[in-house]
Fold:
Amino acid sequence: MTSPAGDLFAVAESRAPIVLGAQACVLRGFAVDRAPQLLAGVEAIAAAAAFRHLVTPGGRRMAVAMTCCGTLGWTSDARGYRYERADPLTGHAWPAMPGSFATLASEAAQAAGFDGFVPDSVLVNRYVPGTKLSLHQDRDECDLAHPIVSVSLGLPATFQFGGDARGDRVARIALFHGDVVVWGGVDRLRHHGILPLADGHHELTGAARINLTFRRAG
Ligand code: MD3
Ligand code: FE
Structure:
């Protein structure tokens, strides 16, 4: 860049939140400096509560591998989708949410206009090449007035976001290592999903994408 004004513009443009809706935005790279600590936290969580493939109430095995931390963890089986205080695999409480996780989520929520977000649950999703997450809504949380904060780590993915109705037009946006997405208010019940992950290798995660979604479930 040759002109100082051009430099300033480039920086401001790249740091501005990307607007997905009236109350939904992408904070590009918001978590990139904290990614190594977040991934160390994920390793510790998975050592106590292993990644598993949940079964939907309809009997389908989910392609995404999942685990949780916090006082509540999301689970699914023939009895339905719900939050539980104990990991059904071990019968023990879910691993505690690391303080650095909660701090990041509340800072990101604040940057997106949601003050005072205190998550009590993190769903940790692991994708390998070929894994997808079909279009769905997140509606098992008690009070849908709280936002959801999502952190992408490792391989990039194509995120799909639609409307309140399943048949609404769907837009696509790429999510990269360190990106944070915040959804709340009028955008809280929009359908969303992840297209099949492309092949690749990331220096911190190998052939995988990890996504953390911070929720206030209880
Ligand atoms: C929009 N995870 O865990 S993150 C999920 O990348 C989930 O693993 C995806 O959908 C992933 O439920 C997408 C972005 C996201 C998360 C939650 C939302 C978008 C959302 C809740 C409401 C609206
Ligand atoms: Fe979701």
User: Anything to note?
Assistant: Residues 136, 138, 192 surround fe (iii) ion (ligand 2) (CB under 6 Å). The chain has a mean pLDDT of 93. The first strand starts at residue 18 and ends at 21.
